[in-house]
Amino acid sequence: MIQKQRLGEIEILRGMAFAAVVLQHSIAHYSVVPEVTAGDGVRLTLMLLAAKFAVPAFIFITGLVLFYNYDGVISYSSFIRKRFKDIIVPYLLWSLLYAGLNGTYARPVIEWLPDVTRYWYTGKSSYHLWYIVMIIPMYLLFPFLRTIVRKAVQWTSQRQYALWLLPLILFAGYELILFLRPWLSELAEAWQIPVLTPYFTTYADRNIVYYLYYFFLGALAGLHINSFLGMLQRVKFPVMLLCGLFVLYYTGMVTGGFPADASYGRRFIGLTLLQPLMAIFLTASVLLVYQLALSITRSESSRHRQWWIIISRYSYGGYLAHALMLRITYGVDDWIMAGWDVTVRTLITALITLGLSILLTYLLSRIPYGAWLTGIPYRKVPKST
Fold it and tell me: Cα separations (Å) of 358 from 51, 181, 258, 313, 315?
């Protein structure tokens, strides 16, 4: 791997994406409480839309960083060994922990062992682990995916408007896949192919096919980072306008497109990721938040920038841990914040959970073998003399 200039905005973007994930899951909890008002519903909708960029941004970052850093020959064995140690092992252990919290081990071993194995493959031991199951194949297939992207870039490089041609083709292909998704699900259900059928039906929300678009976008940005940054400046205001229009549209849909007695948790189903219109909004959102990350990187407020860097550093372990921290924070909410404004409770819960997740990951990273849970190598602090 060739060492290149550090892209400071990536750390900022990663930290923002993790904070957005925590906010989304806090919103999901409070959107169904009985005391939520119409005003809360509007505010929760706006916050949810602001945080929707998180998953596409994480995937975009993965593609960008891999293609930016890996130029030459890749030692596949060392590449996979590092990802297994830093990503897969922590995931497997946290999956075991969440299975225990769900009462899985209360049964005889012969009964729960198959369930645990299935959890590892599906990410079903906790609601947030679906993302890890989806992203791992991108690492495993990276050398193959890199070949595809390079051939595509080579094919378009001599054509007019090459900078725009490949992203437009990629976007059109993704929109087609999303339009065909219901048909693909019905086809897989009809054929009943082992592994493949559930991958396109029950577990379609973690099917790599439906997220590779964001990975490839990141790959193109990583291969042509200067051109990408220049393009961001040119599309800055159109992207802001597009995001604003979509926010108005989706807010109106959530607040006015359902029966009056429908919970906001039910209404938010209309904001799921794998929809053709949502893909347009998410693409624009990632570009907009990337611009925000750039502005933070270039700002004079080093403290503000440092907070995002800290969150970014511990974001993977924090992501794995935050569902557990949310459980703890909900207990604090029931004890202290009962009867408070729902929007305020949501924001406080998200902030506490974010802080607890980062703190726990930091503490685990400071102990021997803590890397097994955090993916952060243990560094022994030298004794002062």
Answer: 19, 37, 37, 9, 7
**Which residues are CB-neighbours of 158 under 8 A, at least 6 positions away?**
none
pTM of the predicted structure, to 2 decimals: 0.93
Question: Rounded to an integer, what distance in angstroms lies between the CA atom of residue 138 and that of residue 151?
Answer: 18
Handedness of CA 290, 295, 296, 298 (dihedral sign): positive
Q: Give the total residue count for the chain.
A: 385
pLDDT > 90: percent of the chain: 66
Question: Two tokens at 112?
Answer: 């729960």
Per-residue pLDDT at 211: 97
Indicate the angle between helix axes 276-298 and 225-234, nearest 10 degrees: 100
Res 384: pLDDT: 46
Angle at 256 between CA 341 and CA 49, to 5 degrees: 60
Residue owning tokens 């096919």:
209
- Find out whether 229 and 157 touch, Cβ atoms under 8 Å: no
What are 327's two structure tokens? 């459980």
CA quadruple 296, 302, 303, 305: dihedral sign: positive
pLDDT at 346: 95
* HSE-up (13 A, CA, CB side) for residue 85: 11
Alpha-carbon span 83 to 77, nearest angstrom: 10
Residue 367, CA distances (Å) to 14, 40, 373, 374 in order:
24, 42, 11, 11
**Do residues 10 and 64 make contact, with C-beta atoms less than 8 angstroms apart?**
yes
Q: Which residues of the chain have pLDDT under 70?
A: 1-3, 159-163, 259-261, 300-301, 378-385
- Tokens 């159109």 locate to 238
What pLDDT was estimated at residue 333?
83
How many CA within 13 A on the CB side of residue 171?
14
Q: Give the pLDDT of residue 383.
A: 53
Element (H, E) at 271: none
The three state secondary structure string of 92-146 is HHHHHHHHHHCCHHHCCHHHHHHHHHHHHHHCCCCCCCHHHHHHHHHHHCHHHHH
Nearest to 314 by CA among 366, 263, 357, 251: 357
Helices (H) and strands (E) in the chain, counts: 19, 0
